[in-house]
Amino acid sequence: MSRESTTDRSSEEASAETSAAAALPGALPDELRAELIAFRRDLHMHPELGNQEFRTTAAIKSRLERAGLAPRVLDTGTGLICDIGIRDGARDGVRPARPMLALRADIDALPIPDTKTGVPYRSTVPDRAHACGHDVHTTAVLGAGLVLAELDRQGLLPHPVRLLFQPAEEVLPGGAADAIESGVLDGVGSIIAVHCDPRVDAGSIGLRPGPITSACDRLEITLDGPGGHTARPHLTTDLVTAAAKVATEVPALLARRVDARSGLAVTWGRIAAGHACNVIPQHAELSGTVRCLDLPAWRDAPDLVHAAIDEVAALYGAKTVIDYVRGVPPVVNDPAVTELLRAAQTARRGSYAIEDTEQSLGGEDFSWYLERVPGAMARLGVRRPGSQDRYDLHRGDFDVDELAITAGVELFTAAALIDGNRL
């Protein structure tokens, strides 16, 4: 990553950016900032898994309705959308004359325990935690919606905006697919989102045009064959050895059959076989993930992986059953929408608060939206500036500097205002 230093900027640039920020409406009021921090902490204390986010959905819906808005719960029963700036005559199934910018947040949590200590907002639900920052994403989009609704009442919102609170991002192949089936992209011209990044300081964002995440699929394999006594492995199908060979040789084989630049990687998370030291088992299992940086290679991955597994297992006489679960393609940021996010962050906080970010091997179902409309995802900094602490994602002790909420709201509101004025 690289960050433009404030000392590298000319005084003219700094002055221009300060003037732009001052001229752009929609600053976050202190009272609302405090409310949003409390809202995020409440979500953090009550995490819900994918497609079970009933309390979360109700809390978002209630707050939007208090602001005079008309949110609609998705057909799946959790998650919701809410349009701002749609005039009464265009609400009843009629698309707005101008395409909407959608602001997307994911609302589900992870099935892991919250191991933080010393904070009053620790999860109250056993083995459930917002350890990926979805509570922050949700609060930032909610806050942006409240600010934009007020601007709309003042006649300052240049074009309609849709808030999209999506369930089940952590459940393959992701809740985005169901949300799309519910019509969340109807009338949408482009879509933006953020994802918490503990490597970036709060107040800053990371941007990258093109691929910013990888594809992620799930792989389950079972191996079967006649077992027997370890004294006579020649009379058996040695499934432990077969499983070990699949685990080590399949990734190596794929590395020689796929362009290395595609980043195709099979990584195992579980291997199980047998119950006794002197018994060759009749059944073995492996579970893992398939990740890929390149979209065309991801589309070819199932056939390549199946062939490699069958080839290695056949050498040891093992019968295979392969469950290859399609996950998500890479998030590929549209260059023009990425530049919109850059312009929005520059207007609010200056270009020095923007970092170049690398492509991650993590998966994100935001990619499904980008198969339909142009869009972009930014890395939202959540690290306390100057801190040496490392709270990585998907860890029970993950936490954020809550300045990230303000930064997220500012980014979304500025993007909506700038995008509307460009049309």
What are the main properties of this structure?
alpha+beta, 423 residues, elongated, Alpha-Beta Plaits, Aminopeptidase, four-stranded antiparallel beta sheet, 2 domains, 34% helix, nine-stranded mixed beta sheet, disordered N terminus, 10 helices
Describe this structure in words.
Helix content is 34%, strand content 23%. With 423 residues, the chain is an alpha+beta fold. The chain folds into two domains: 2-212 and 331-422, 3-Layer(aba) Sandwich (Aminopeptidase), CATH 3.40.630.10; 215-328, 2-Layer Sandwich (Alpha-Beta Plaits). Helix 1 (11-23) packs across helix 8. The model is unreliable at 1-9 (pLDDT under 50).
Strand order of the largest sheet: 1-16-7-17-6-4-5-3-2
The radius of gyration computed from the alpha-carbon positions, rounded to a whole number of angstroms, is 24 Å
The CATH class assignment of the largest domain is Alpha Beta
Helix content: 25-40%
Strands, count: 17
Helical element count? 10
**Average of the residue pLDDT scores:** 91
CATH architecture assignment name of the largest domain: 3-Layer(aba) Sandwich
Instruction: State which percent range the strand residues make up.
Output: 15-25%
| Helix-strand sequence | EHHHEEEHEHEEEEEHEEEHEEHEHEH
Determine the structural class based on helices, strands and strand pairing.
alpha+beta
Could you say which overall geometry the principal axes of the C-alpha atoms support?
A: elongated
Per CATH, what is the topology of the largest domain? Aminopeptidase
CATH superfamily of the largest domain: Zn peptidases
Low-confidence stretches: 1-9
How many distinct folded domains? 2
N- and C-termini, Cα separation: 32 Å
